[in-house]
Amino acid sequence: MERLLNDQIVQQIKEVFGQLKEPVQILFFETSQNCETCQDTRQLLEEVVGLDSKLGLGIHDYDNEKQVAAQFNVTKAPTIVLAARDGDQVTDLGIQFAGIPAGHEFSTLINDILMVSGRDSGLGAEAREFLKSLEKPLHLQVFVTPT
Amino acid sequence: MISAEGVEATEFRELAEEFYVSGVPQTVINAGAKMVVGAVPEQRLLHELQLLMKN
Questions:
Q1: How many domains does chain A have?
Q2: Which of residues 1-55 of B touch A (CB under 8 A)?
Q3: pLDDT (tens digit, 9 = 90+) per residue, A60-83?
């Protein structure tokens, strides 16, 4: 199978992955129902995860692994979950990407991996204070396109 | 308590239409309780969240 990431991009990613701190577990929920991007998304993740030993990847069948999907609040496929891993312990941080992270969204994926690995949102003090005080759930969906 | 997702709008067209997504990025807060269009600075998003969540 032809690789999706060329040598130059692989080199660039390896360089930024030098900043990785803690392990990151990526869970990919794919579906066989009418999914044009599942195969490419899976291959893309496999290529990215293969670039650093701090990254792990689990492939899940969205249609047949309802329990795992529910555990991570996954409601559609394809969905990528970026979770924290410490030893055998995988902690859901509530961070997902639905659809293929292509084009501009590929750098979003790489940046999110770095953020999860650093265990730091990068938010300012005021935002942290406010979010800590929340008593009701907050769900943000950022709609994007690859171009 | 807090969850966030990026959604590829062309792939999840129905979901995007449900929230009248016309330009990207568009941030939908709590299933449409509030929408923020554009890549706004952290302070602006924080302000919107503060207004919404205090009610």
A1: 1
A2: 1-12, 15-16, 19, 21, 24-31, 42-43, 46, 49-50, 53
A3: 999 999 999 999 999 999 999 999
A137 contact partners, CB below 8 Å, separation of at least 6? B1, B2, B3, B30
Give the closest-approach CA distance of A15 to chain B in angstroms: 25
Does A73 reside within a domain?
Answer: yes
Of A72, A71, A94, the C-alpha closest to B2 is: A94
Q: CA dihedral defined by B33, B5, A103, A145, rounded to 10 degrees?
A: -20
ipTM above 0.95, yes or no: yes
Q: A80-133: per-residue pLDDT in tens?
A: 999 999 999 999 999 999 999 999 999 999 999 999 999 999 999 999 999 999
The enclosing domain of A88 has a CATH number of 3.40.30.10
**Does a structural domain hold residue A91?**
yes
Its domain, for residue A61, covers: 7-132
